[in-house]
Amino acid sequence: MERIFGEIEGIKEGHIFSNRMEVSLAKVHRPTQAGISGSQNEGADSIVISGGYEDDKDFGDIIIYTGHGGRSNETGKQVADQQLKRQNLALAKSCLEGLPVRVIRGKHKGSIYSPNEGYRYDGLFLIEEYWRKKGKSGFYVWLFRLRKIKNLKLIVEESEEEYKSKRVPTQIQRIIRNTNLSRKIKEMYRYKCQVCDIQIETSSGYYAEASHIKPLGTPHNGPDSLDNLLCLCPNHHVMFDFGGFSIMENFEILGIDAKLTIHKDHTINPKYTKYHFEHFYSEQNRTDLK
Amino acid sequence: MERIFGEIEGIKEGHIFSNRMEVSLAKVHRPTQAGISGSQNEGADSIVISGGYEDDKDFGDIIIYTGHGGRSNETGKQVADQQLKRQNLALAKSCLEGLPVRVIRGKHKGSIYSPNEGYRYDGLFLIEEYWRKKGKSGFYVWLFRLRKIKNLKLIVEESEEEYKSKRVPTQIQRIIRNTNLSRKIKEMYRYKCQVCDIQIETSSGYYAEASHIKPLGTPHNGPDSLDNLLCLCPNHHVMFDFGGFSIMENFEILGIDAKLTIHKDHTINPKYTKYHFEHFYSEQNRTDLK
Predict the structure, then answer these.
(1) Which InterPro entries match (chains A, B) (predicted)?
(2) Are residues B21 and B138 in the same domain?
(3) Measured between alpha carbons, how far is B164 from B177 in angstroms, rounded to an integer?
(4) pLDDT score of B287
(5) 3-state class (DSSP) for residue A284
């Protein structure tokens, strides 16, 4: 079954479910027991907060969520260190990739934000950061800070009206864009930068960025398509967006001494590199600044 | 006179001034003639929109603003290409550094968002992007897309209340943090990464990021001080934040083969590197993923 990131059609924020089975059948959070839904490769798409973890903190729009594992089946107490594996790694992956996570709160006594009954769907959150610390038990736990995405709809509507394009602020772009295409280009290049071949390594896997050659925003209105995408490291992404280098019609790189790697299944449209060159590259100024 | 970025004390959004001299005396926009206030090294702190440029577009919360230069003094028409220099470069610098720009709209016929009289202070904007294109005149102009910062106060207040810390979302953090300290550390290292020595070059100058060793946010509550900052390239910033490497008590780098450059005037507090190591570095997992 395909994992769905983001909103589930027909389920509005505030929707109350009687029990975990209902939540699961509605596809809001598939597992009927586990608190984290996700896999290491795809990322996590939803979590349930039900008050079982002593290091959890719920501030409403910001949640400190404890990872999975290390608890005794009998007592529910933390009896071993948590590892950054499986579901915990799935949450870390969602953090790295900027994927939205559905949050479901279950009734419990530990938080004023928990519902009075059953389980409530409380909208989409982004994972801003993850880290480990010695928990109250003395064992290491992994913690994840989630922040609610507040104005997703507002921004998307405003943007559509104004531009007939999908231009939205960076944070939200990350969510909307980070769909199959973006992941596809990164996987095609195995998270290696097409300019410098670097593969950025983090504690939860490789990191790369999908960069649009002709930008999506107004007035450029470049398409969100594979022939308009590059897989870049953050350094070359910044340089590319801010005219540090460009790409010629023959796909040679202009401005820095490097060669563009192009996968055999990746066709770049020279119309878009030409657009980038004309609009973002300023050779005259580069030499002036030196 | 020191250039002030952000809000001017005592001047609320919507404040109406009779003329440019009043705007200048209030320190909202210092120059009495020029549309852009700023310098190449510091960035731009304010702009006035008064309808003189045919390629300007005003969507209210989003503005496409044309750079300075290339117009005839007599006819006001574009008669030459604009260069990414002086005030234009100041705007580009504000874009790169994420500095807030005050926007003042003057009365003119070209936009429904212009005031009925005089000049109106319309709040803080971020410059999201800059590019050049052949303008309506046939000559190259530089364009800047500004987006209004809508919820600055809301977010800062919420954060203070919840955490007694300055934790706010990334975009706003960029503004608040990008003050003297952040600039100081980047200038100390001449925008070179302390890990790899790379100096990222863009069309408008060098780019680096100030990275907090012990993060500012809850529950870390690291201080915004020089002994808790590093000057990093975007690649090593991502890796550091997500546990790709850490720093030992003797300031040797752990996890990658590199040496940390430390300027003689830069004292790093080993308390913070220890915190980073304990909370963000996960050697066990790194080797597992390989």
Answers:
(1) HNH_nuc, PUA-like_sf, SRA-YDG_sf, SRA_YDG, UHRF1/2-like
(2) yes
(3) 16
(4) 45
(5) helix
C-alpha–C-alpha distance, residues A192 and B243, integer Å:
19
> No. of H helices and E strands in chain A?
8, 14
* Shortest Cα–Cα distance, B170 to chain A (Å): 9
Residue B119 banded pLDDT, cuts 50, 70, 90: very high
ipTM here: 0.84
Calculate the average pLDDT of chain A. 86
Q: Is residue A11 part of a domain?
A: no
Structural domain harbouring A235: 169-289
Same domain? A50 vs A82: yes
- Give how far B275 is from chain A: nearest CA, Å: 10
Determine the residue of chain A that is closest to B203 in CA distance: A243
Q: Using CA coordinates, name the residue in chain B closest to A89.
A: B285
State whether B203 and A128 contact (CB < 8 Å): no
Residues B121 and B244 in one domain: no
Q: Do B23 and B124 sit in the same domain of this protein? A: yes
Whether residue B83 is contained in a domain is answered as: yes
Mean pLDDT (chain B) is 86
Taking only the tens place, the pLDDT of each residue in B226-240 is 999 999 999 999 999
Mean pLDDT value of segment B105-122: 94
Identity at B16, one-letter amino acid code = I
Instruction: Nearest chain B residue to A141 by CA: give it.
Output: B279
Residues of chain A scoring pLDDT < 50? 153-178, 287-290
Same domain as A197, residue A114: no
Is the pLDDT assigned to residue B66 strictly greater than 60? yes
> Residue B109: which CATH number?
2.30.280.10
Beta-carbon separation of A84 and B285 below 8 A: yes
Q: A164 vs B20, which has greater pLDDT?
A: B20
Strand-pair category, A101-106 with A43-49: parallel
Q: Nearest-CA neighbor of B4 among B41, B35, B29? A: B29
B interface mutation test: which of A285, A286, A287 has the most B CBs within 10 A? Answer: A285
Number of domains, chain A: 2
Nearest to B145 among A202, A217, A281 (CB): A217
Query: Which residues partner with A64 through β-bridges?
Result: A57, A145
Are B105 and B138 in a shared domain?
Answer: yes
Please state, for a pLDDT cut of 70, what percent of chain B lies above it. 87
Q: Are B168 and B159 in contact (CB under 8 A)?
A: yes
Same domain, A213 and A132: no
A191 CB neighbours in chain B (<8 A) are: none
The reply to whether B73 and B111 lie within a common domain is yes
What is the amino acid identity at position B183?
R
